[in-house]
Amino acid sequence: MIGCGAYIIWTGKEDNVQTNYVINQVRIKVNEMMLFLEENHKAIATDATVRQTLQKMSENGDVRLLFAQLDGRIIFNSAPETPVQTIDLRTSLHYDLYDSKVDKDLFKIAFPVINPETQTQIGNAIFTLPAAFVIPKQSHQTILIPLFLMVICLLLVFILLWFLRRKINNDTIRPIQKLKYYSEAILKGDYEHKAEYGRMDEIGEVYAMFEQMRLEIIHLNKRRDEQDKAQKELVSNLSHELKTPLTTINAYLEAIRAGICPDMDSVMEYIQVMQTNTHKMTVLLDDLLLHALKELGQISVHRTEQYSKELLLQILKPMGHNVHTAGITFIEPAEIPNVLINVDANRLVSG
Question: What is the model's pTM?
Answer without folding.
Answer: 0.37
